[in-house]
């Protein structure tokens, strides 16, 4: 039996290079050797209140991007989270064993809560707690779905008994919590129901793809993304506008953050020879950032343009998209229903008839 792999991406907009290198490119490689399930996390997307009229189209976009990037519905199960009603049921059950304290200490929750409350990045945990608990209007601004986001994510994984969960670095804390919840449930009920999942990275380290604005990671809410569906002109423009610095002042000097980020992107998209060539040019101060950016744009386009073309084609075929997720949902539901029945049994929930 092949090991089970599960991962998902929220339907909050088109996919960017962070999603691609952190997750999707691994999904494609893994479908060859594993029993893979990949889904669109539309319930997770609700935690940040997307426009209801756009949600369905966003889900379609991501299914089409999965397929355009090379996922094959004959090899992997592709489904939409909200098509599996067993997930919300197990989410309710698992929440009985999840502490609100551990959820409040999760980095992603603190980030989102800070944003919702308008507290600066370095606002302390105390500040967040006081703002949420002590102020009537603020207490409504941070919704309970945001707090219990890690429970829902754990359920996505545990309900399929996945062993590997290919995700970017930013999701590792959620995986740690998933392992903890699995251990706790198993120990509490004296069962061996949930395996403890780990990230998967083909021997390398999980990546954090940086943005083009010189700081932090590439993210939909940061406005610093290169999208897989960007057209050639837009993409070139974005890369040429990427933040740099005034150039190295002395041989072998330390790189600033924005320049390091460009090299990280180059390493992900170019050949080792080209990376070395630009590293050497940086070290001896002959580098021209314009050339580096041109090269980077070329290499990114080699990856994204074929995906964009296939995406446009698949996206216009509603029937095909519907068929893929309908068949995927059938397979994913069957497995989820089995695990849910086992969890209910372990917890002592039995039907009278
Ligand atoms: P989401 O939608 O934020 O991101 C989807 C995937 O893309 C990766 N990613 C990145 N990787 C490297 N560098 C970046 N700049 C970058 N930005 C995004 C993320 O690590 C992720 O792998 N909670 C998940 C969705 C989810 C899930 C799950 C994933 C829900 N349930 C169960 C795995 C298993 C999320 O928000 O991903």
Walk me through the structure.
- With 353 residues, this protein is mainly alpha-helical.
- The protein contains 16 helices and three strands.
- Strands 1-2-3 form a three-stranded parallel sheet.
- Helix 1 (17-30) links the parallel strand 1 and strand 2.
- The chain starts with a strand and ends in a 6-residue tail after the last helix.
- The structure holds tryptophanyl-5'AMP (TYM).
- Tryptophanyl-5'AMP (TYM) binds at residues 6-10, 18-19, 21-23, 41, 44, 153, 156-157, 165, 167-168, 170-171, 174, 207-209, 217-219.
Quick rundown:
With 353 residues, this protein is mainly alpha-helical. It has helices at residues 17-30, 42-45, 52-69, 86-95, 100-104, 107-117, 125-134, 136-141, 144-147, 149-158, 172-189, 232-240, 257-269, 272-283, 289-315, 318-347, and strands at 4-10, 35-41, 77-80.
Bound molecules: tryptophanyl-5'AMP
**Rounded mean pLDDT score:** 95
* Largest sheet data: 3 strands, parallel
Low-confidence stretches: none
Spatial shape: globular
Distance between the termini: 35 Å
Number of helices: 16
| Extended strand count | 3
- Proportion of residues in β-strands: 5-15%
| Rg of Cα set | 22 Å
Order of neighbouring strands in the sheet with most strands: 1-2-3
Question: In which range does the helix fraction lie?
Answer: 55-70%
Structural class: mainly alpha
* Secondary-structure element order, N to C: EHEHHEHHHHHHHHHHHHH
């Amino acid at each position: 039996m092949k090991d089970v792999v599960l991962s998902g991406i929220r339907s909050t907009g088109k996919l960017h290079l962070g999603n691609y290198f952190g997750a999707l490119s691994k999904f494609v490689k893994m479908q060859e050797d594993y029993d893979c399930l990949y889904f669109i996390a539309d319930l997770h997307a609700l935690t940040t209140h997307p426009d209801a009229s756009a949600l369905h189209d966003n889900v379609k976009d991501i299914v089409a991007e999965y397929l355009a990037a090379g996922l094959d519905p004959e090899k992997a199960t592709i489904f939409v989270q909200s098509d599996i009603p067993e997930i919300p049921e197990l989410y309710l059950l698992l929440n009985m064993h999840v502490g609100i304290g551990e959820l409040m200490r999760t980095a992603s929750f603190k980030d989102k809560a800070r944003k919702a409350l308008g507290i600066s990045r370095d606002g302390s945990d105390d500040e967040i707690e006081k703002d949420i608990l002590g102020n009537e209007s603020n207490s409504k601004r941070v919704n309970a779905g945001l707090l219990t986001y890690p429970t829902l994510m754990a359920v996505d994984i545990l309900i399929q008994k996945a062993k590997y969960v290919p995700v970017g670095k930013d999701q590792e804390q959620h995986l740690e919590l998933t392992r903890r919840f699995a251990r706790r449930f198993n120990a509490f009920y004296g069962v061996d129901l949930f395996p403890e999942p780990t990230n998967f990275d083909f021997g390398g380290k999980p990546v954090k793809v940086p943005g083009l604005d010189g700081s932090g990671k590439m993210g939909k809410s940061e406005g610093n993304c290169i999208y897989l569906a960007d057209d050639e002109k837009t993409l070139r423009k974005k890369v040429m506008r990427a933040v740099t610095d005034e150039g190295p002042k002395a041989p072998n000097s330390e790189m600033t953050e924005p320049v390091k980020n460009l090299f990280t992107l180059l390493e992900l998209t170019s050949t080792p020879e080209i990376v070395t060539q630009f590293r050497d040019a940086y070290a001896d101060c002959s580098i021209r950032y314009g050339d580096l950016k041109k090269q980077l744009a070329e290499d990114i386009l080699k990856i994204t343009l074929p995906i964009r073309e296939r995406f446009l084609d698949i996206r216009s075929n509603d029937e095909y998209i519907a068929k893929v997720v309908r068949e995927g949902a059938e397979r994913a539901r069957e497995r989820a229903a089995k695990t849910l029945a086992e969890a209910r049994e372990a917890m002592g929930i039995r039907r009278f008839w």
